[in-house]
């Protein structure tokens, strides 16, 4: 089947084709702006103090990570256990550029996203042949390799970590990064590209037979997912002042995966809600140190046994659903 | 030259441990296609049971080993019934997350009771080093024990899988679960047996490692668990001799990397090997080339 | 439309939940009846054993003070939280302790990495933070050479121990060719290694081989074989007892019988269990004090600890214990439980007598303390010499 340049251009344009004037879109836009302003006001007035702020940052970053991982694992069906590695690469890129090379934050963020995307290509291409559990372990291995290289690289601090990173992340950066992530990824999903990814998840061979370029889309999913994970990493590094390679290991990847599954693979709303819920749960359990991880494990287990499709399954809030589009079934094996 | 001999010995002794854990891993994966993340933690519990028996009840080495294997096999059966059976028909990701949650539960649950401090085994096997080939390269008596146990268990396992009815059932379920049920095989019992055996092996490995390295802690299972999985994949997942081969291969390569001065990268190398094997020969070095049916 | 509204309402509810959650009040001011101190320690995760030990020591000290009438007549309220051995969580816990629990000081974390996570929070809110074990140089001094106003440590800096060991090996033992085995995942270990190498080579010594290992490893045969083949006269292993015990055992098994040297990470009764007493001969390490010291306060501490916890104390227990008393001493001198005054008092600490030695705080918020060199003979630490600062 011929896939002309004209078709590709049309499909890309379709992604961003929004009738700005529709009532629904104006309402969404207004709501987004309203939330931003209200929270900014509360922060300025000191009603939301640093404890809430730090937790909002953690939640915001988790949302970005969850949504970006959902694109790879939930919508394209590529089981990835190395997502924290992309975050790590983004965090270190931004950290080094801002701390050691004195660059402004915007440079750090963009560079972080781009280097993470390159990593997405590096992992996406060799693993094209792998599926399911093997892909999972390969991505886990990739994550570990990144972590070990980080531990042994003295320029970036090695095991000692990178310290005194300037704090540039604030509510504005955080909020609009989250909004941008959700906006781009949900539009991607609703477009032809998204449907191609979903087709790959449903039945890769059938998709290939129908002319979907599976290699391209699988890699693209990794690249886009990594791109946003890189941004999350940059936001993290430039808020917490200090990063070390061990923070971005296997357990972090698992944390993100748990959020995605909890919220529902294939549901962006689910990832958002999941990120909020699990971050709050984790914070609430701070008071019971010894049992915290045990409770976390039990909660996880119960969710998996009694509602494995996650909170939202594959449904979205109407806010994100285009009328007339079928989102596909997320319950295949 | 002595250095080389010593390093080879080091590699083989390290490899025998990976092989032992990999045996259990490969069995379980072969039959229910689940990466049992909790396998490494069953190994850890085996080590702790052995510790409790030898320290508080003054068991000898072999009795502690046997009892520990019994306890872990029962634990394995329980885990399967409670955690994995309900998810047999769910998505792979759900099953994997469940396995991870079981793993975390075991690790941190035990840590709550026994505290995160490392424990040491009392000396239940004599601390004897044997000199090799007249040089100063040494091999520990415990290494020899581990080697022997690993090889013996491998042979026993091969026998069970290929010459007994239970083993036949296991192979059948591994090949096609639904068809074997249609042929009258009790799939639940077969899976339980598999878990029992696999977990017993993990428990044995735990006790042996505890005795050999003399140190145990609640988090000791995660890395060896992963390495054992890599070993199983290298040899061909589901293939018993493959797991043993993979274990030794990994152990020797790791030691080789350390011997060449790259000891900090040895884990990374293990993963690179994994990725290479998955790319070049995904069914493992001993596996057959399976065509993908549409 | 309905769902949009529902979403908005949900967000608002969530926001009010978070706001309502706050116990109110800004951080810092002490309560009227109790003095609140926050313990920010690794109670789970990779560094759980060290964090738990330190917390145990601190709690023991603070409980003792409460039993003896309290601090400034008030009871000390201990708020202990787990930072999961993660630096982000350490920051989160620090924020919660300060803004929700109104602590006047934060004690901990255990490792330098996690401490660095909590430092910005403490500095921003102007609450003193003291660590008894975060040894990295940049914990108290930032990259521009400025002292971090509210941060203190009561343990040796890495630079100090490394220099001391180098002088000892070269001067006292008279050995010129050594091998170094560093724990690469620990800034403590790497810090000591760097400083050792610098001093040792300046003195004319020679490092014949350098190898490394990671935390929680159990098999060191490969690197030890390499070291043995390089024929060193001594082996420097500036690590923690959990790995060092195994390293020494395996080294002796391989026939590597040279002296082994390290820092205060060796101080733990567990090291005998791990290595076996025969292996622990010809082992030297720098420490804060001698645990077998017959000075009355050391003996008393050991007895009390054994009675309470059924085991011998290790360095972390002891350092935690001293940290508790260090804090109390600063509060007494400050006269009230005010963070700024406590900070000032800490900065001006002179000759504070703890069981791990007498210390004063210098202009870099590091302790000036005598170092003791101990030798292990059949597993027992014996006093060799004491070096005054």
Compute the CA-based radius of gyration of chain B: 19 Å
Number of strands of chain C: 15
Low-confidence sequence ranges of chain C:
1-6, 19-30
**What is the name of the CATH topology of the largest domain in chain C?**
Rossmann fold
Overall, the morphology of chain B is: globular
CATH architecture of the largest domain in chain C: 3-Layer(aba) Sandwich
Count of discrete alpha- or pi-helical segments spanning 4 or more residues of chain B: 11
Please explain how this structure is put together.
With about 325 residues, chain A is an all-alpha fold. Chain A has a domain at about 55-245. Chain A is about 70% helix and about 0% strand. Chain A has 13 helices and no strands. Residues about 320-333 of chain A have low confidence and may be disordered. By secondary structure, chain B is mostly helical. Chain B has one domain. Helices cover about 70% and strands about 0% of the residues of chain B. Chain B is built from eleven helices and two strands. In chain B, strands 1-2 form a two-stranded antiparallel sheet. In chain B, a hairpin with a 6-residue loop joins strand 1 (about 130) and strand 2 (about 140). In chain B, helix 1 runs antiparallel to helix 8 (about 185-215) and helix 3 (about 60-85) packs across helix 8 (about 185-215). The radius of gyration of chain B is 19 Å and the shape is globular. The N and C termini of chain B lie far apart (about 55 Å). The mean pLDDT of chain B is about 85. By secondary structure, chain C is an alpha/beta fold. Chain C has two domains: about 35-155 and about 295-370, Response regulator (Rossmann fold, 3-Layer(aba) Sandwich), CATH 3.40.50.2300; about 160-285, Response regulator (Rossmann fold), CATH 3.40.50.2300. Helices cover about 45% and strands about 20% of the residues of chain C. Chain C has twelve helices and 15 strands. Chain C has helices at about 1-20, 50-65, 85-100, 110-125, 160-170, 185-200, 220-230, 240-255, 270-275, 295-310, 315-335, 340-345; strands spanning about 35-40, 75-80, 105, 130, 150-155, 175-185, 205-215, 235, 260, 285, 350-355, 355-360, 365-370, 370-375, 380-385. The termini of chain C are far apart. The model of chain C is unreliable at about 1-5 and about 20-30 (pLDDT under 50). Chains in contact: A-B, A-C, B-C. The interface of B and C includes residues 3, 115 and 209 of B.
């Amino acid at each position: 089947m011929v896939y002309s340049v004209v078709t590709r251009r049309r499909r890309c344009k379709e992604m961003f084709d929004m009738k700005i004037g529709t009532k629904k879109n104006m309402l969404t836009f207004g709501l987004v702006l309203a939330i931003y302003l209200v929270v900014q006001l509360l922060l300025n007035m000191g009603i939301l103090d640093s404890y809430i702020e730090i937790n909002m940052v953690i939640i915001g970053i988790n949302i970005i990570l969850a949504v970006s991982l959902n694109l790879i694992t939930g919508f394209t069906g590529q089981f990835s256990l190395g997502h924290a590695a992309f975050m790590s690469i983004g965090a270190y890129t931004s950290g080094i550029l801002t701390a050691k090379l004195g660059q402004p934050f915007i440079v750090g963020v963009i560079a972080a996203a781009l280097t993470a995307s390159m990593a997405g290509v590096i992992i996406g291409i060799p693993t094209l042949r792998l599926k399911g559990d093997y892909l999972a372990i390969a991505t886990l291995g990739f994550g570990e390799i990144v972590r070990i290289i980080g531990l042994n690289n003295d320029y970036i601090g090695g095991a000692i970590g990178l310290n005194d990173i300037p704090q540039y992340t604030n509510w504005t950066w955080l909020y609009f990064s989250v909004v941008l992530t959700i906006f781009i990824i949900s539009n991607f999903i609703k477009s032809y590209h998204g449907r191609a990814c979903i087709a790959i998840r449903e039945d890769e061979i059938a998709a290939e037979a129908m002319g979907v370029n599976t290699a391209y889309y699988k890699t693209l999913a990794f690249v886009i997912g990594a791109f946003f994970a890189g941004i999350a990493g940059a936001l993290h590094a430039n808020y917490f002042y200090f990063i070390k390679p061990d923070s971005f290991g296997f357990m972090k990847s698992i944390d993100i995966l748990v959020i995605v599954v909890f919220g529902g693979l294939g549901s962006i709303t689910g990832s958002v809600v999941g990120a909020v819920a699990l971050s709050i749960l984790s914070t609430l359990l701070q008071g019971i140190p010894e049992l915290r991880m045990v409770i976390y494990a039990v909660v996880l287990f119960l969710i998996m046994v009694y509602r494995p499709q996650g909170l939202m399954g594959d449904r979205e809030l109407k806010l994100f659903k285009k009328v007339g589009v079928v989102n596909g079934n997320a319950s295949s094996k | 030259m002595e250095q080389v001999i010593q390093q080879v010995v080091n590699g083989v002794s390290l490899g025998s441990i990976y092989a032992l854990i990999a045996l259990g891993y490969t069995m379980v994966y072969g039959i229910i296609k689940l990466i049992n993340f909790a396998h490494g933690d069953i190994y850890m519990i085996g080590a702790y049971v052995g510790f409790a028996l030898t320290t508080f009840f003054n068991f000898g080495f072999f009795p502690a080993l046997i009892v520990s294997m019994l306890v872990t096999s029962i634990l394995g059966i329980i885990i399967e019934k409670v955690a994995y059976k309900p998810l047999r028909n769910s998505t792979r990701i759900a099953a994997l997350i469940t396995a991870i949650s079981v793993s975390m539960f075991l690790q941190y649950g035990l840590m709550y009771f026994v505290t995160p401090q490392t424990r040491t085994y009392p000396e239940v096997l004599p601390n004897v080093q044997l000199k090799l080939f007249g040089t100063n390269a040494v091999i520990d008596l415990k290494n020899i024990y581990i080697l022997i146990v690993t090889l013996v268990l491998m042979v026993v396992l091969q026998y069970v899988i290929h010459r007994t009815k239970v083993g036949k059932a296991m192979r059948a379920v591994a090949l096609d679960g639904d068809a074997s049920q249609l042929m009258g095989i009790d799939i639940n019992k077969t899976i339980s047996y598999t878990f029992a055996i696999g977990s017993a092996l993990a428990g044995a490995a735990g006790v042996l490692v505890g005795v050999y390295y003399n140190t145990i802690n609640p988090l000791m299972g995660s890395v060896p668990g992963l390495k054992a999985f890599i070993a199983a994949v290298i040899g061909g997942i589901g293939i018993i001799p493959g797991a043993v081969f993979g274990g030794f291969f990994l152990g020797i390569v790791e030691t080789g990397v350390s011997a060449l001065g790259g000891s900090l990268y040895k884990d990374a190398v293990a993963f690179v090997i994994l990725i290479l094997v998955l790319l070049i020969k995904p069914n493992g070095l001993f596996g057959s080339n399976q065509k993908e049916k549409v | 439309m309905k769902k949009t509204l529902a979403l908005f309402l949900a967000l608002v509810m969530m926001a009010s939940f978070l706001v309502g959650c706050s116990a109110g009040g800004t951080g810092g001011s002490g309560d009227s009846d109790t003095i609140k101190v926050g313990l920010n320690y690794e109670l789970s995760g990779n560094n759980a054993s060290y964090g738990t030990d330190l917390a145990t020591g601190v709690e023991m000290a603070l409980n003792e003070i409460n039993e003896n009438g309290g601090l400034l007549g008030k009871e000390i309220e201990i708020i202990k939280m787990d930072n999961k051995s993660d630096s982000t969580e350490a920051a989160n816990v620090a924020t919660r302790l300060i803004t929700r629990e109104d602590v006047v000081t934060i004690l901990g974390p255990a490792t330098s990495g996690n401490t660095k996570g909590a430092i910005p929070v403490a500095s921003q809110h102007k609450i003193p933070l003291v660590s008894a074990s975060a040894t990295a140089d940049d914990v108290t001094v930032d990259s521009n050479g400025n002292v971090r106003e509210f941060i203190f440590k009561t343990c040796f800096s890495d630079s100090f121990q490394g220099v001391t060991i180098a002088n000892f090996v070269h001067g006292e033992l008279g050995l010129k060719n050594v091998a170094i085995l560093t724990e690469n995942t620990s800034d403590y270990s790497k810090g000591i290694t760097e400083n050792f190498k610098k001093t040792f080579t300046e003195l004319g010594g020679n490092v014949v081989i350098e190898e490394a290992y990671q935390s929680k490893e159990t098999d060191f045969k490969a690197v030890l074989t390499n070291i043995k083949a390089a024929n060193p006269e001594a082996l420097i292993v500036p690590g923690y007892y959990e790995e060092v015990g195994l390293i020494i055992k395996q080294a002796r098994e391989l026939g590597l019988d040279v002296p082994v040297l390290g820092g205060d990470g060796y101080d733990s009764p567990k090291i005998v269990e791990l290595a076996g007493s025969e292996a622990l001969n010809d082992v030297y390490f720098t420490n804060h004090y001698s645990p077998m010291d017959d000075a009355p306060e050391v003996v008393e501490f050991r007895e009390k600890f054994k009675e309470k916890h059924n085991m011998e104390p290790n360095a972390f227990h002891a350092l935690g214990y001293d940290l508790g008393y260090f804090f109390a001493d600063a509060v007494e001198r400050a006269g009230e439980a005010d963070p700024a005054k406590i900070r000032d008092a800490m900065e001006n600490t002179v000759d504070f007598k703890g069981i791990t030695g007498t210390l004063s705080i210098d202009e870099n918020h590091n302790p000036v303390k005598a170092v003791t060199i101990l030798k292990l003979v059949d597993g027992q630490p014996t006093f060799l010499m004491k070096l005054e600062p």
